[in-house]
Specification:
single chain, alpha/beta, 5 helices, 25% strand, disordered N terminus
Length: 208
């Protein structure tokens, strides 16, 4: 797994293949935008005056998505609305941000929540990578109409658009701990298999 720094030698071949000429700019922008989102979410958390972390978590989810969409617009690329949520789409690859833990935790421990929306599941099933070789799909006699529906591509996103996952951990007090991006396949038990992944550097905390 590569750990990318200041990109003196340019972005990885994987990033270049997916994002084309925007690969370097995007790889540098993602950590900064996550730091910006954290700063605003932390401010909202303090303003709420609650001991619970919910104001931070809820705000962070929306802000990360908005900041990535802002980057797409700055690059002259697309922002698509899927069920009321904006997704940055660069070179036909949609960025899917996901905070998988509120404390430092290995990427292989990431898991989609049991109450994850059908929209989230469908994004992975229809726009994520195919199941890696050696893993089995559901038997035909067990496939339901609901299961098949999860494999239907979102027209608003573009049938040929592929998903690039941006997984990270963060908490209100310490900010962003770690950032990973790559191709993530959602398994039936809601865990993830990564045909490819990279770790991005964490940008310095932004002041609000």
């Amino acid at each position: 797994m590569a750990v990318l720094g200041g990109y003196p030698a340019g972005p990885s071949a994987w990033a270049s293949e997916r994002f084309g000429r925007y690969a370097g700019a995007l790889a540098a922008a993602v950590p900064v935008q996550l730091a910006n989102a954290h700063a605003k979410a932390h401010a909202a958390h303090l303003a709420a005056g609650l001991k619970k972390r919910s104001p931070y978590g809820v705000a962070l989810v929306g802000l990360v998505r908005e900041h990535l969409a802002e980057t797409a617009r700055e690059l002259g690329e697309a922002v698509r609305d899927v069920r009321g949520y904006e997704y940055a789409v660069i070179n036909d690859h949609a960025l899917f941000p996901f905070r998988y833990a509120d404390r430092p935790r290995p990427l292989d421990r990431a898991r989609l929540p049991a109450n994850a929306s059908p929209t989230r599941q469908r994004l992975f099933r229809a726009h994520g990578p195919q199941s890696p070789e050696g893993l089995f799909e559901v038997d035909d006699d067990l496939v339901t109409e609901e299961y098949l529906g999860l494999h239907e591509a979102f027209e608003e996103l573009g049938a040929s658009t592929r998903l690039v996952c941006v997984f990270f951990t963060a908490d209100a007090e310490n900010g962003i701990h770690a950032i990973h991006w790559g191709d993530a396949h959602l398994e039936p038990d809601r865990t993830f298999t990564w045909p490819y992944k990279e770790q991005l550097p964490v940008a310095p905390a932004q002041m609000e």
